[in-house]
Amino acid sequence: MLEGIRIYELKKFPDERGFFAEALRKDWKNFLGDEWIVQANISYSYPGVIRAWHRHLRGQVDYFLVLEGAMRICAYDEKTGQLDEILSSEHKLQVVRIPGHYWHGTKTVGYKPSLTLYFVTRLYDYDNPDEERRPWNDPTIIDPRTGRPYDWNKPPHK
């Protein structure tokens, strides 16, 4: 994995009513370090929707928690050419930490929409957003496994 990317498996506490799980706790120092969340956002995406590529250059870190559906979360380091793919879903509750300086994005996979709660370490600045963007199909983002431009739509079985 790229340096700084971490996955924290959440613990579910089931009972006859359903389950309870903690999404983030300030005392999870092994996962959060000294970072803390200043904003929480909700993203709902239809199947097949790609939200990529973007990055944050002022120190923002994103924490993704997929609550419904499934999502492929990718991070790309253009300096090294390394690319990480993480599959996260409602069936495997986890928080995925992505340092904002990596190009990153998501795709809703499967047959149903995804609902994602994501937390960030910097407030969104409407007048001067910390966001640099590239098209989702940018040919300069290379898949290190194939040596070709990254294909968000490649079949998972190939």
Quickly give the structural class.
mainly beta
The main β sheet shows up as:
5 strands, antiparallel
Shape verdict: globular
Strand and helix order: EEEHEEEEEEEEEEE
Give the CATH architecture: Sandwich
Helix share, percent: under 10%
| CATH homologous superfamily label | Jelly Rolls
For the record, the CATH class is Mainly Beta
Uncertain parts: none
Instruction: Going across the biggest sheet, name each strand in turn.
Output: 1-9-6-11-4
* Domain tally: 1
- Count of helix runs: 1
In angstroms, what separates the terminal alpha carbons?
A: 21 Å
The radius of gyration computed from the alpha-carbon positions, rounded to a whole number of angstroms, is 16 Å
Strand content: over 45%
The fold-level CATH name is Jelly Rolls
Number of strands: 14
Average pLDDT score: 95
Outline:
With 158 residues, the chain is mainly beta. 3% of the residues lie in helices and 47% in strands. The strands form four sheets. It has a five-stranded antiparallel beta sheet, with no helix packed on it. A five-stranded antiparallel beta sheet has the order 8-7-10-5-12, with no helix packed on it.
Explain this structure to me?
The chain is mainly β. The chain has a single domain (6-125, 141-149), classed as Sandwich (Jelly Rolls). 3% of the residues lie in helices and 47% in strands. It has one helix and 14 strands. Strands 1-9-6-11-4 form a five-stranded antiparallel sheet, with no helix packed on it. The chain has a five-stranded antiparallel sheet with strand order 8-7-10-5-12, with no helix packed on it. The longest helix is centred in the first third of the chain and has 4 residues, at 29-32. The mean pLDDT is 95.
